[in-house]
Amino acid sequence: MERKREHVASAVDCYMKEHVKSQEEATEIIWKEISEAWKDITKMHQKPTPLPAALIERLLNYARFYHVLYEHGDAYTHPQLMKAQVASLFVNPVPL
């Protein structure tokens, strides 16, 4: 979808151009980098910090939200992609 908008370059397009890689290679590399970033976030979240815990938790939740939002496509632009997740939270919640 990003390619249909002429004025916007996707992360995959930028990576392909900068590193002379195919779309498949660039996509795979970017997903590996995302995986490594989550490992870094997890490690840093476990270390003591002078920042308030509430701030750290809020930032971590933003990262989690955006990961879910874009994990299987652009659910921001196409909210129907989130239909199953929303239904599992509000329509069919797990009984406690």
Count of distinct strands = 0
End-to-end gap = 40 Å
* Number of separate helices: 4
| Percent helix | 55-70%
Q: Can you tell me the overall shape? A: extended
Strand content: under 5%
Mean pLDDT: 86
- Helix-strand string: HHHH
Q: State the major sheet.
A: none
Category from helices, strands and their pairing: mainly alpha
Runs in which pLDDT lies below 50 for 5 or more consecutive residues are none
Rg from alpha-carbon coordinates: 17 Å
Protein name: Terpene synthase metal-binding domain-containing protein
GO molecular function: magnesium ion binding; terpene synthase activity
Pfam families: Terpene_synth_C (PF03936)
Domain Terpene synthase metal-binding: 2-40
Describe, in plain words, how this protein is organized in 3D.
It contains four helices and no strands. With 96 residues, it is mostly helical. Helix 1 packs across helix 2. The protein is extended and about 50 Å long. The termini are far apart.
In brief, what are we looking at here?
The chain is 62% helix and 0% strand.
